[in-house]
Amino acid sequence: MAMNASSGLIVSPDRSVVRRRRLPVSGEVLVTEGATVRAEDIVARAMLEGPLLPVPVAGLLGCEPAGVARLLTVTEGMAVREGDVLGRSLGIWRFGAREARAPMAGTVERVSPTTGQITLRGASRALEVRAHLPGVVSAVSPGEGADIICRAAQVQGVFGIGGETRGILSTEALPGAVWLLRTADGDDLRRAADAGVAAVVAGGIGYADLGVVHSRRSPVVVVLTEGFGDQPMADRTWNILRVHLGRAAAVDGTTQIRAGVVRPDVVIPRSGEGRPLPSGPPPELRLGIRVRIVREPGLGRCGRVLQLPPLPRTVDSGVVTRVVLVALDGGGVQTVPRANVEVES
Description:
Elements: E1 11-22, E2 28-29, E3 36-37, E4 42-48, E5 52-55, H1 57-61, E6 79-80, E7 85-89, E8 98-101, E9 106-111, E10 118-121, E11 125-130, E12 135-141, E13 145-156, E14 159-161, E15 164-170, E16 178-180, H2 186-195, E17 199-205, H3 211-215, E18 221-228, H4 235-242, E19 248-252, E20 265-269, E21 290-293, E22 302-307, E23 313-314, E24 320-321, E25 323-328, E26 333-337, E27 341-343
């Protein structure tokens, strides 16, 4: 059963996945509504102005700021390469001759007779947004980007590190692969970085072990489906992912747990299996339904709803709120604020 992101973690073998692809600044949208796109296709592009760099020409040539103009070999608007001469002072009988050279390639944006500086503008660069998923353009926002929809298997995680990446789903640490593990530790992350793995998807990992990601030269995207600690990936999640071994997967480690929740996820497009499916209503919190605890205490633990007390209660933090009693997998009952659980299935 597919789950809506607003009500719980999505763990679905077949659903419609929509990605909003947006530029951070105004630009040009390169696709039209209804168009079919590949994951690597550019859907929107914006040109960003290059950096500004002041060059103290007067100081380099040993002259007053007002005298810089007569010593320049360039004019405003002229393109220069790194190392090109910007100005030259011949000194006296060529004794003490000096040159000011461009520290980077760019364009002479301004010459200031007040400061004796030349301001160089670096080359513009293109900011591009790719589809990330193969699918159909379902909507276009002029100047901003587009929405991509595709039919796929999707698994959301509790926590992630890193941004977007893609690779072939594998149970081995292969270069460029999305490495699927029941559980992981620091040694696994070091091995992944050394092998050039694109992403590690595991049930749980020790919090301290995540420091390995930042200490290695090769960045690895990490998605945890259960949480921190020695928590193996749930059987249902493992089986949904494992059936797609050898297929391309899109991974996003972006995580935001404040307002406007963003969950890390793994998406495996179901190429050639028809148009996207219509979305069903999200499941409701009810007796017997499986849930996952998404905040401490108990982050990542799963179980079934045992009771839904109608009146608010005081929890350990001192807050008075509506709660849910969860019969935890492996035994025990935990009272949890309703805001701290999400429907699992």
